[in-house]
Amino acid sequence: MSGRIRLILCVIACFIAAVGGVFIGRALLPSPVQPGAELHEVLHHKLALDADQQARLHVLEQRFAVQRRAFELELRADNARLAEAIEVEHGNGPRVVAAVDRSHAVMGELQKATLAHIFAMRQLLRPNQTGQFDQAVVKALTDDKR
């Protein structure tokens, strides 16, 4: 067998092994749970929201999705500024520090907006629904399985 054929067979075998490894890994390892997934499950499937609550929740979620996307874009821009500062300063200089501080400020604003969104959703709930919602919020904030 020529060296070229052996090389092609080796490449094919490596590709098949890599694809097989991905499939085995996905089957054996649990996929990470998205933060807030359980809270979403509670809100949409376990609290038996009435039609008015569902409509108001939909409006809140639409509004927050736009707000969250704006923060995410701002954070991406901050990361680009940080990368540029690192490239220029090659160390923890004043531009790097300023870029990190700006990024942290935006992260803080995102966290505040997220909490405001959670509290706004809670306001839609009847008293008999808030306990389960509160438990899901606490679990989302304290669960180590991320």
Tell me about this structure.
By secondary structure, the chain is mainly alpha-helical. The protein has 2 domains: 1-31; 35-142, Four Helix Bundle (Hemerythrin (Met), subunit A), CATH 1.20.120. The chain is 83% helix and 0% strand. The termini are far apart. The mean pLDDT is 84. Keywords: Membrane, Transmembrane, Transmembrane helix. It comes from Sphingomonas glacialis.
- Tell me the series of helices and strands, N- to C-terminal: HHHHH
Largest sheet: none
Name the beta content range.
under 5%
Give the N-terminus to C-terminus distance in angstroms.
50 Å
* Structural class estimated from helices and strands: mainly alpha
Helix content: over 70%
DSSP summary, beta strand count:
0
Query: In CATH's first tier, which class of the largest domain applies?
Result: Mainly Alpha
Question: How many domains, as an integer?
Answer: 2
Transmembrane segments: 7-29
Organism: Sphingomonas glacialis
InterPro entries: Metal_resist
Keywords: Membrane, Transmembrane, Transmembrane helix
Q: How are the SSEs placed, and which strands pair?
A:
Blueprint: H1 3-28, H2 37-46, H3 51-89, H4 94-123, H5 127-142
Helix pairs in contact: 2-5, 3-4
Key descriptive features of the protein:
single chain, 5 helices, Four Helix Bundle (Hemerythrin (Met), subunit A), 146 residues
Short structural summary:
This protein is an all-alpha fold and 146 residues long. It contains five helices and no strands. The protein has helices at 3-28, 37-46, 51-89, 94-123, 127-142.
